């Protein structure tokens, strides 16, 4: 009986030792409970951060000013007082260019006004004499100063025909015609018989009576009127083709003591 009682404690000690399977299950259950509590807390904390970030962004957006991102902006010229430019230097360059153009236009207008004034002065019929162009006319031959050629230049002579009393000098429209010598205008008309627009001048050259007639001038180009005195080389009109004329040219007639003479021969003898 005593031996049996002595063995009982040994049996209790074996029963109180934890079983390996039960220990593993217990640990797994505890880990599961910890995860169940920790994960929601972590998620809640993370969601709290996001919510806080969104709230700050929304608050900042309420007072934010608009901003243009450089990559989205398009370069456009700024308007500065009507000048399209992007910098002060470009604006100044634009102003300088327009000032130069204005100055050039003003200078051109002044030159045109001066030319118109000179033309008006030379064509005035109320003046008994007008300025001489003798020194400015590039003569074909210099001459003595008493007799000048009527043209600064000409292309060639016209073809003579029966009854033709003058010499034709072929030249372009608008070329200047000059008085061959000092004298007095005795005829000036826009509608001469066959001559068209013409001027006739009486001269006294070294005691010899000479008349010169200049025909086929262009319309409205006569610079002298009847009774006006002129000087050798003075501009009296411009080449045209009025009257009975084939092409633009000057028809020049020279009469010496009321007799017709060859105009070119007379000029060669008297103008050099």
UniProtKB/TrEMBL annotation:
<feature type="domain" description="M23ase beta-sheet core">
    <location>
        <begin position="163"/>
        <end position="262"/>
    </location>
</feature>
<feature type="transmembrane region" description="Helical">
    <location>
        <begin position="21"/>
        <end position="43"/>
    </location>
</feature>
<keyword id="KW-1133">Transmembrane helix</keyword>
<dbReference type="InterPro" id="IPR011055">
    <property type="entry name" value="Dup_hybrid_motif"/>
</dbReference>
<keyword id="KW-0472">Membrane</keyword>
<dbReference type="InterPro" id="IPR050570">
    <property type="entry name" value="Cell_wall_metabolism_enzyme"/>
</dbReference>
<dbReference type="Pfam" id="PF01551">
    <property type="entry name" value="Peptidase_M23"/>
</dbReference>
<keyword id="KW-0812">Transmembrane</keyword>
<dbReference type="GO" id="GO:0004222">
    <property type="term" value="F:metalloendopeptidase activity"/>
</dbReference>
<protein>
    <submittedName>
        <fullName>Murein DD-endopeptidase MepM/ murein hydrolase activator NlpD</fullName>
    </submittedName>
</protein>
<keyword id="KW-0378">Hydrolase</keyword>
<dbReference type="InterPro" id="IPR016047">
    <property type="entry name" value="M23ase_b-sheet_dom"/>
</dbReference>
